[in-house]
């Protein structure tokens, strides 16, 4: 009884191909890694660092410096000066975080770049994702739930809900 051609995952290989090395079939990717100074972000970076990536994969290591609150009052000029200094220091700190991630991910065969922006992390991550069109967005999650998630919000939840790209959330 003939069962047709042997195809599919359980099919036997022709004798000429048995034991032959298969060519690399993985494709290089563009990955947007969102990083901050937290254990969940470190877990996401470590997870990505340990994964097997195709040669040519490019990482965009994004760190978003939150916009400091704006104060108005009689000493408005002094507040503007303080606000600028806080913004500059925040950008410098987040640039260092992104550059540290680049150092860990840029190995032979892969490239990485640091990117730092100021604003609401939920909005800025989605904005960079729309501009860059990555194959994957990776970010850590604090794992908040219930009232703390409602009050504090969840960047990961917002990105998963609104991104038009695949998102990998690491706890």
Detailed description of the structure:
There is one protein chain. 40% of the residues lie in helices and 18% in strands. By secondary structure, it is of the alpha/beta class. Strands 3-2-1-4-5 form a 5-stranded parallel β-sheet, sandwiched between helices.
Range of helix content = 40-55%
Flag low-confidence runs: none
Strand order of the largest sheet: 3-2-1-4-5
- Record field, number of beta strands: 5
Shape, per Cα inertia axes: globular
Mean pLDDT: 83
What's the gyration radius in Å?
Answer: 22 Å
Q: Major sheet, described briefly?
A: 5 strands, parallel
Query: What is the count of helical runs?
Result: 5
SSE-based structural type: alpha/beta
Q: What series of H and E elements makes up the topology?
A: EHEHEHEHHE
Task: Name the beta content range.
Answer: 15-25%
User: How widely separated are the two ends?
Assistant: 53 Å
Summarize the structure.
This protein is of the alpha/beta class and 171 residues long. The protein has helices at 39-50, 76-105, 121-132, 146-152, 155-162; strands at residues 30-34, 58-65, 111-118, 136-140, 167-170.
């Amino acid at each position: 009884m003939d069962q047709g051609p042997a195809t599919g995952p359980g099919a036997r290989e022709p004798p000429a191909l048995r034991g032959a090395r298969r060519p690399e079939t993985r494709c290089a990717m563009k990955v947007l890694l969102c990083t901050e100074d937290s254990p969940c972000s470190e877990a996401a970076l470590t997870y990505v660092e340990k994964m097997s990536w195709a040669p040519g994969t490019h990482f965009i290591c994004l760190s978003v410096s939150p916009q400091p609150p704006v104060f108005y009052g009689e000493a408005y000029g002094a507040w503007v000066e303080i606000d600028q200094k806080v913004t500059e220091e925040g950008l410098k700190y987040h640039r260092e975080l992104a550059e540290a991630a680049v150092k860990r991910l840029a190995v032979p065969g892969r490239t990485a770049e640091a990117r730092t922006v100021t604003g609401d992390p939920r909005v800025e991550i989605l904005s960079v994702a729309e501009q860059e069109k990555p194959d994957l967005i990776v970010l850590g999650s604090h794992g908040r739930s219930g009232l703390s998630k409602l009050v504090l919000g969840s960047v990961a939840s917002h990105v998963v809900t609104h991104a038009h790209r695949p998102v990998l959330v690491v706890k």
